[in-house]
Amino acid sequence: MRAPDDSDRSPVGAVGRVTVPIPPDGAGEVLVAVRGGSEAYTAWSSTSIGRDVRVVVVDAVSARTVVVERLPS
Fold it and tell me: Considering the entire predicted model, what is its pTM?
């Protein structure tokens, strides 16, 4: 038997919204649409991002922590 593939559970590539502002060199929080619902993740970014800004997840650091970038307009 094959082990379950976790790729369908990865938030990478998902679009979300910042719920707690992300400061430079600090963590904030994002609400990301995944698995048919929305989940909150601790979020890091190379630049500060304010509340309610739409972002895309570019990396998953751990099960509950992601790296995000502003969603291109």
Answer: 0.85
How confident is the model over 8-45, as pLDDT tens digits?
578 999 999 999 999 988 999 999 998 889 999 999 99
Separation CA 42–CA 22 (nearest Å): 9
Dihedral sign, Cα of residue 43, residue 50, residue 46, residue 15? positive
Q: How many helices (H) and strands (E) does the chain have?
A: 0, 5
Nearest CA-CA partner of 33 in 57, 53, 51, 49: 57
- Please name every residue paired with 44 in a beta bridge, in sequence order, or none if there are none: 67
Contacts of 35 (CB under 8 A, 6+ apart): 9
Longest dimension (CA), the chain: 46
